[in-house]
Amino acid sequence: MSIDTSTWDPVYKYKSYDMEKAGTNMVYTPLANKENDVLCMHFDHTNAYQTTDLAQWLPERPDYTKELVDYVFYREVKYLMLFQDKLWAPNIVEIDYNTKKIFIEWGGETLNHIIYSGRNIVDVLPNWEEQMLRILQDIIDSGYYKVSLYPHCYFISNGVLKTFDFYATAGKEFPYMYLKDIKGLMGTNSGHRFDEAIDEDKLDLEKFCKRSISTHIEWPNEVLSNMYDKIFKPT
């Protein structure tokens, strides 16, 4: 029997320092238990989190379908399981393939919450930059590119920085996702970020990952962009 999430609370991110809430992603519904130590990633295309809560800034989503959500669910499972031996990968609590729910350990908040509530990450995790660089370097050295590198894709658990949202990850041997499979992930407001990484009918995740690190994804003090040269050492 699957874990009952009927009383769990949805998790949001903050859009800015005025702490205006927004959905954390365009695919699944994140839910936290009352103890705030387990996160459920519910891949349900009918959930109000996606169909209603995001409607204010994504009014029309014809490509947000069950097929898209199922596709992303299996990608998240694949890479979450692949990286389970890594200290920075969240421990899997349970995976329910029938309801498309993934349960992972949870630190109670993401780095997005820390940043936009005006706190300093250093006060919570003094060596967070070192840990973040180690995560990124480890992913690249393992032969993969991970695109979801935003502050809301990281949390802290017992002094360890962890990352999730692996669905936009691909191996170096074939660093692509077909556009027909991910059209529903390419929001109208962010579509321009994909343009230079499109290769005919595919999205090149190597190009997209590198540009995301160097330019697209904002962190305080440009921490992420400053890591680019350390991660992609000249060969």
Q: Short description, anyone?
A:
This protein is α+β, with helices and mostly antiparallel strands. It contains 10 helices and 14 strands. The protein has a 5-stranded antiparallel β-sheet with strand order 1-4-5-7-6, covered by helices on one side. Strands 12-14-13 form a 3-stranded antiparallel β-sheet.
Give a description of the structure:
- The protein is α+β, with helices and mostly antiparallel strands.
- It has one domain.
- Helix content is 31%, strand content 21%.
- The chain is built from ten helices and 14 strands.
- It has a five-stranded antiparallel sheet, covered by helices on one side. A three-stranded antiparallel sheet has the order 12-14-13.
- A hairpin with a 2-residue loop joins strand 9 and strand 10.
- It is globular and about 45 Å long.
- The model has no long low-confidence stretch (mean pLDDT 91).
The first-to-last residue Cα distance is 51 Å
Strand order of the largest sheet: 1-4-5-7-6
Order of helices and strands: EEEEEHHEEHHHEEEEEHHEEHHH
Q: In angstroms, what is the radius of gyration?
A: 17 Å
How many structural units, i.e. domains?
A: 1
Q: Number of DSSP helices?
A: 10
The total strand number stands at: 14
Low-confidence stretches: none
Give me the secondary-structure category: alpha+beta
Percent helix, as a range, is 25-40%
Q: What share of the residues does DSSP label as strand, in percent?
A: 15-25%
Q: Using the alpha-carbon principal axes, give the shape.
A: globular
- Average pLDDT reading: 91
Largest sheet: 5 strands, antiparallel
